[in-house]
Write a structure and sequence with these properties.
mainly beta; about 300 residues; Acetoacetate decarboxylase-like; seven-stranded mixed beta barrel; globular
Length: about 300
């Protein structure tokens, strides 16, 4: 397994899988075929696909940010950011407390961007973009994915190319019962002793949230991968705004500042109970947003699209 690079963890990140005891042979098992291997060997353990999440809790915050700033971050993948209004991209901060999964229990923080599918038509009009977004014809590019446990870090990087590295993630939840006014869940992310961010998500009203699971994209070692997954949530809540973000001194924090954060959140949500199932990753090539050509491993134009 390689050391963290700009493809996977922020430049200057204090920890990561490469060259340390949390490395893994990452070897696939099974006949695979078009859908890839059916299991992987990770740190001496066999991991079958799909990987199941049987019990978890999740919190999420969405922000509208300038599309040009977001695209600069996403550009190496060949993907194109999108959002509900012209000139704005949708970026999310998500926090998961995984209690019972095939990868053990762990905490996770995700930074992701809503993107057009890798094979979406090029040069779309504003109306086409709006229609894609409204119909849910989008994907999610997972840009940063710090976790707090060794096994999920190794498995996530090797099986799906997810940009995981090991950090400290503390989740402080309010006590059960009727929440106090202004109370909420606070998440603190620390990397090698450096404060990255603190995110507080205040309690929202009960509402039914769609169990959407758009395909996720990862980009590691110059390779773009697409993963299909499914999810279901209960005891969901949400509200406009509803989040407070404090950024520390760390490359990941600086990257979020380049998007204009902290700022008022567009929407925040939570799910007290979540299940999920993750299939195999498939290597794909993105179409260049303007030329329609395929992009090579570093996001530069390559062979013409079929």
């Amino acid at each position: 397994m390689t050391s963290p690079t700009a493809d996977s963890s922020p430049e200057g990140a204090r920890s990561g899988p490469g060259g340390s005891p949390n490395g893994t042979d990452g070897s696939p098992n099974g006949p695979g075929g078009d859908e890839g291997p059916t299991s992987w060997s990770v740190l001496g353990r066999r991991v079958g696909l799909p990987v199941e999440v049987r019990r978890a809790a999740q919190w999420g915050v969405q922000y509208l940010v300038p599309a040009t700033a977001a695209q600069r971050i996403v550009a190496p993948t060949g993907l194109e950011v999108t959002g509900p209004v012209p000139g704005r991209a949708l970026v999310s901060l998500a926090v998961c407390r995984y209690d019972d999964t095939d990868l053990d229990a762990y905490h996770e923080v995700a930074v992701s961007f809503v993107v057009r599918p890798h094979d979406a038509p090029t040069n779309p009009s504003a109306a086409q973009r709006a229609r894609e977004f409204a119909e849910g014809s989008v994907g999610v590019y997972i840009h940063r994915l710090p976790v707090d446990q060794e096994f999920t870090c190794a498995a996530g990087r090797d099986i799906w190319g997810f940009p995981k590295w090991i950090t400290t993630i503390d989740i402080d939840e309010p006590p059960p019962g009727r929440p106090r006014a202004g109370s909420g869940t606070t998440v603190r992310l620390v990397d090698g002793g450096d404060h990255v961010l603190t995110l507080t998500i205040r309690s929202g009203g009960r509402l039914r949230l769609p169990s959407q699971a758009p395909p996720s994209y990862s980009f590691a070692d110059g390779v773009l991968r697409r993963t299909e997954w499914s999810t279901s949530s209960t005891d969901t809540a949400g509200r406009p705004g509803g989040a407070t973000l404090v950024l520390g001194s760390h490359p990941m924090a600086d990257e979020l500042r380049s998007l204009g954060l902290p700022k008022r959140a567009l929407f925040s949500s939570s799910a007290a109970t979540m299940t999920a199932s993750f299939g195999a990753a498939r290597v794909v090539e993105a179409l260049h947003p303007r030329t329609g050509s395929r992009t090579n491993a570093r996001g530069r134009p390559g062979a013409e699209a079929d």
